[in-house]
Amino acid sequence: MPATKSSLINRLNNNFARLKPVGIREFDAKASQVPGIVKLTLGEPDFNVPDAMKEAAIKSINDNDSHYAPGVGTIALRKAIAHFLNDRYQLDYDSNGEIAVTIGATQGIYAALATLINPGDEVLIATPTFPLYMAITTMLGGQVVEIDTSADDFVLTPEKLKAAIADQPTAKALILNYPSNPTGVTYTAAQIEELAGAVKDTDLVVIADEIYSELVYDGGHTSIAKFIPEQTLLLNGASKSHAMTGYRIGFIAGPKQLMGPVSALSGMMITSATDSAMAAATAAFGTDAGHQATLTMKKAYQERRDFLVGALQKLGFELATPRGAFYVFAKIPAAFGTDDVAFATKLAEKGKVAVIPGSYFGAGGQGFLRLSYATSIDNLKTAVDRIAAFLKED
Length: 394
Known about the structure:
The chain is an alpha/beta fold. The strands form 3 sheets. Strands 2-8-7-6-5-3-4 form a 7-stranded mixed beta sheet, with helices on both faces. A 3-stranded antiparallel beta sheet has the order 9-12-11. Strands 1-10 form a two-stranded parallel sheet. The protein is 41% helix and 14% strand. 49% of the residues are buried. It folds into 2 domains: 8-48 and 291-393, Aspartate Aminotransferase, domain 1 (Alpha-Beta Complex); 63-289, Aspartate Aminotransferase, domain 2, CATH 3.40.640.
């Protein structure tokens, strides 16, 4: 095996040294080594890809659909995405110039931020949240400004947002993820309208990661793009709504003059998404079968949520009922302290249940645990029984 030339080690991008460890994948990998462990760690749907999506992918392969697609994605998929956004959220985007297909929402996050951020630019991020936003901002030389929402039940209030804008008047972007990973918190239409009002008179670009928008259990999802489309870059994709994580299809939608450079940069990064995966996503976003598949999965998630929330509350965990996504963000019972990493490590090693420490998700997460209910009800029941036994013994 080759060894790196020692003199090269100090020639890497200087921003690597600024990165904080994310830890989610590493914690999951370590916990996975415990024999017989039940994992409630990753946001990975346990459903198979629906048949209509698989059939579309197979047809694409059999039809020799194997050549370069446009950098922004096939026109069929972009039209299906435009239909999806209009049908579900009453948003009006042109499939030509206002939508770009990405390799999952993850690559879309990078493309959006890389288009906007110059070294030193501040990015406002409501936390706790998916830590990749902080990591990418840091790698681009930007400055992360965390807005801790834990005192407000993990909801970003207009008052707190206005205060952050006043403190950072030159901030370039606001990242808003809802329904939230890790908390499951989402916003009503009135709340989103108020946040949009706080942003409207600024030059902030809102990067709205709405990847869990189809998994809202109580009421519907309202995109902030409904109120301030002129300064919103909307991210979404097929991974969570259609259990298509391995197909890696996401998208960005936004106003044409913003999407021009975003699309160009995205195309430089990926050339284009995979033809057969885009064919599957076209069926996901553009057909009744795709919609019905999501509704079936959502019903199962809601049943799992209701079971897990009730069971954890009986065990002494404090938590609000998550209204979206497939995560519970639970406060460790007071008798066990606030060291969430130590608690989660011991729970994995002794209790044989793997969860993710809340502090991995930024300011406001310490003392909490994220539990994913994107797994079977049987696994959840086993996990609850083991957690109960662990709390009694520890």
